[in-house]
Prior knowledge:
Number of helices of chain A: 15
Largest sheet of chain C: none
Number of strands of chain A: 18
Structural class of chain C: mainly alpha
Structural class of chain A: alpha/beta
Number of strands of chain C: 0
Helix content of chain A: 25-40%
Number of helices of chain C: 10
Largest sheet of chain A: 6 strands, mixed
Distance between the termini of chain C: 32 Å
Strand content of chain C: under 5%
Oligomer: heterotrimer
Amino acid sequence: MSQYIAIEHLSIYAQDTIIVEDLSLNLEQGETLTILGETGAGKSLLAQAIMGDLPSALKVTGNVLVNGVDMLRANRRECEQLWGRDIVMLPQEPWHSLSPMMKIRQQVAEVFRFTLGNGAREAQKSAKTQLDNLALKDDSDKVPSQLSGGMAQRVAFACASATNAPLFLADEPTKGLDPGRKHHIIEQLKQKANDGTLLTITHDVSVAEALGGKCMVLKNGKLVETGDTRKILSSPSSNYTKALIASAPQHWTATTKKTHRFAPLVSVNDLTIVRGNHTLFTGLSFSLGEGEIVGLCGDSGSGKTSLGDALLGLLPYQGNIAFHTLLHRYQTLKLYQDPPSSFADHTTLKSLIDDVIKLHNVSKKRADLLSAQLGLNQQLFERSASEVSGGELQRIALLRALLLRPKLLIADEPTSRLDPITSKAITHLLVDQCREENCTVLFISHDRTQLEKVCDRVIDLQSLTTSKAVI
Amino acid sequence: MRKILLQRLLQAVLMAWSVGTLTFIITRSLPGDMAYKIAAGRYGDDAVSTSAANAVAEELGLHRSAFEQYVSWMTDLASLELGNSLVTGAPIVVELQNQLSYTLVLAGLAILVSALIAFPLGIYSGIRCARKSENTPKSRASLFDKTALVFSTFVRSQPVFCLGLILIFIFALELNWLPVAGSSGFVYTILPVMTLGLSLAAISNRVIRNSTVNAVQSGYFHFAKIKGLSALEAFRCHALPNVVIPALAFMGIQLIGLIEGVIMIESLFAWPGIGHGLSHAVFARDITMLQGTALLMGTLFVLVNTLVDLSQYALDPRVRENLGHSQ
Amino acid sequence: MKTFALPVEKVIGFSLLMLLLLLALGEPVLLGTNGNQQNLKQVLEAPSAQHWLGTDQFGRDMLARISEGLRISLSLAALCVLSSSIIGMLTGVIAAWCRGWVDTTLNFIANTILALPGLVLILLFAALVPGSFIMLYLAISLVLAVEYFRLVRAITLPVVTGPALENSALMGFPKRYLFSKHIWPAIRLDVLSLAAFGASSSIIAMASVGFVYVGLKPPSPELGLMIVELFPYYHEAPWLLAQPIFTLFVLVLGFHLLSAKSDKTPRLNKFIFDSSSRLSKSNALERKL
């Protein structure tokens, strides 16, 4: 059987809605395939179909053959037999995949013990080695709640790769990771690609680029384009693929930067922030100009959010933060990383926006004009926050903030939870609208490339923590 | 860990203060002829006289000023001078010791019985429920699960003494298998223990069932199977600890409800433990006995809370971590 | 907006309670028999046309007594739940919102009340003034109020520290708005659930206290007291003893079903973790990436 995975006309339905439509693909042993597409049930369901792990409530038609085994018709027991030995999947949410009360070394050792049948002591040793390889040497006795997101991802990776299964499925392996971590995981995946057959699902074009091999582009469960990765990425034929590639920050056209001197809005001097027992940074000094778009980047835990909160007066700090113009509370606002949690639930968006309009006597005309500029149609407002997509909600959050004509807007990773195409749109909307309003933006992100394309200047918090730099 | 012990110590002090103060207020609120009634209760209606009533009043120090009395009352309490029973005249400490052993037997057996019922029932219900709804978002309850739910709701919706009465009707009065009440042998423990055990198990089995369903439907259980563990291995290593440890914590908290249930059950079955002592002391206005039993119950309560906290600290690494990082 | 599918348990619970309420309020209006009237010529009679539920050991009409017993239990439950919920909610929200020393003080008071098991506290209060409805009401309300306090505080804390409320505050909305738009929707459902549960707890507490002869005094037809008084006549007139037991059972069952959260045990009452840190730290598992 040279065809390791053979899928023919696979369609998956949830009641009457079609999620995956007429998909066919062939993967040979040792090949690498990347499935590119935005967040949607289609890609993960495809991985689950290959595993034989589809929810029984879904209707499926077509054929999925893995190494000759019909995964759709085989009974569950037979499929589960293959897990860990012939197929393994690295799931999307690493934290939820780790047992909360078990030490991570134990969780890796299990694989050696049960799947590979080693003795207990040998399993422990192998687990240690595995964790060492992923830079988790000193953390092997920790429990998942003590790990950061990146560390949990590495532990899950350790477990999955310990099985040495010839077919490796990775579901969004770099979601939400810092660029440094992302690079590390990609290296690990490349190793897997060399050792066996690798199928990666991602919305990140750079991951596809790094892995090479073959590529399939999916939109709403339908195949848009397929072929050799390099060829598709260098000369895409469909519009959707073009948009997807263009949405990666490295391909953005840089906006014109304002180089004139900005009148200072706020000056920060010798700032130190302490959270709990942990000093995030000391001796930070910088200033923000009126109408300036400033990017703030740094790895997670470096204190980017805390810095923003301190500027808004939400957090205690040591040092000096001085505003050069007297601003009302409502003129310094924040955009949040997780749009749904920044809106009150159980109530329509219309009523929330109306409350803002009533509170500050905003003119209806301005509200309508802004809505139009942000591409929001009136029907959206009739829903509640939980019934609207992340991207649309972030636009409404932007509308809500702009209605008050803020002078300072702290955008705390506003696009990291969004799909790449939406993320690009929101980033540009944010920057364009704020320039028009002459509002200062502190754009916080862990993606430096994104910031360099749209901001007037970029502050790197990481490189400032040890030195007392003035920018 | 020290933080836990300090917190509980503070609770013990507060508890003792509450009991002491409340019983003191009760003492002060005794109408004049109460001393007479207590003397009558002690010596018999015929033998009582004004002097006897005065002696009782003297004993309780009803003639002194309120503040003086309070200070001396609390000092006695602090030095564990619990005095004698106003009804029987016996030293409180001795009475309490007798009662305590009975209560501990009852409570210990009841916990055991409830664990023996709740764990198998809960885990099995959970597995049946989860298996029936393999991979579907909503859990559809199996027949077994639904029956267990009905049983639990039925038992839980009654005051514990009603349950006791029902068991008495069935087993003692109708079937004549067991004695109704009393304490002179092992066979007398069966009904009270069963009553308490069942009422505890009715709630804890649902908690265990829910934990089991959550564990079996969780991401980590699923990933364990993906890693290559068999369903049984995954259940043993991943699901079970995440079910048992929180369940033990819950049952520890249930012990608190047990202390209250003991009051009712001991009264119903005439089991001479602390609960029985407490309710009779309230009825007979035996103030010193009331204080003693309430104090003892309160102490047990604090002890149980402490044990629960410590065991959670030892077993659940998340608790250790939370307490380690202050605030 | 989503439509509400009425869960079966709540419907059953509600109907049961309505039936009992009907009995409690309807009987005096429609029949008006005197439940205290003794008639020693008609003791321990079986149900008949004249006495629908029979008569007790003093010849008193059982239907009237059961109905009055229901009125006592329901009025106690209503009073206790009303006062404890208002006090508990107010203090819970204030503690969570203000934090700092206000929170510490309120927590301290709550812990003092909770230092004793609830029933012991209630018995002590009952011993203060025996046979007094007010004392029982005070004691039960106190214990219930603390449970409300802890629940409301635990729910309000993450809301008050969360992004939605923080944003509204930044935008300049007054405290009144912050409460009605953010805090109240979060506590509303649980408060109602706890109300039903609290009602059943207070009824059980009163019956328990009556059962050990420390509650309301005879000839009051309190349900717990009735049970213990009728127990000796079990053999001659089993239908008598069954009545208060059954009534109590249906009453408590009704409230339980009303408070139940479909298939899950109510996550309220005493089984909430002690330290606030534990509950809010459970959200710390969702760490920022």
